[in-house]
Design brief:
Four Helix Bundle (Hemerythrin (Met), subunit A), 167 residues, mainly alpha
């Protein structure tokens, strides 16, 4: 192969990004720094939903079924705070404004839950909680995750918490 042909191959590789230059790292961006310092971890939307929202959704449902209105009120505040934090942490998801996704899917059901809890009404609570779950599922479908289906809990995933204890 002539030297001219080799030069053209190198130019082609550089133009396509196939060769890593000295200013780029061949390591993935998630690789830990070589100096031993920790890299900050940024939670994904899935991380935030699984750790911040889903447990609160379950606890809210369990508190309502137990008619523990004080705990239900607390869980409702907690789920609202979780969504507020998520909106700040990740303002856009899949190109869409998260605040609008949350508002569209959650505002009405959360307000209905607030009313049901205030009235200590188990039937209104159950209907509002169902709308909350439907709102979650509609939001998931709108961001191409229709396979993430939220439903009322069948049993407590929190064996160390008594949902029936009334203050």
């Amino acid at each position: 192969m002539s030297m001219n042909a080799v030069r053209w191959i190198i130019v082609g590789l550089l133009l396509t990004g196939a060769v890593v230059g000295p200013s780029q790292s061949a390591l993935p961006q998630t690789a830990a720094p070589t100096d031993g310092t920790a890299m900050p971890y940024t939670m994904t939307m899935g991380d935030m939903m699984n750790t911040l929202v889903q447990p609160r959704h379950a606890k809210l449902g369990l508190a309502g079924v137990a008619q523990n209105w004080a705990l239900a009120r607390y869980a409702l505040v907690e789920i609202r705070q979780a969504f507020a934090g998520i909106v700040k942490a990740q303002p856009r998801f899949r190109g869409m404004p998260v605040v609008e996704l949350v508002d569209t899917a959650m505002k009405e059901p959360l307000n209905a839950l607030d009313t049901a809890i205030e009235a200590h009404d188990p039937q209104k609570f159950a209907a509002a909680y169902d709308r909350l779950s439907q709102g979650c599922n509609a939001c998931h479908a709108s961001v191409d995750h229709p396979f993430v289906v939220i439903k009322p809990p069948d049993a407590s995933a929190f064996p160390n918490q008594d949902f029936n204890l009334q203050p």
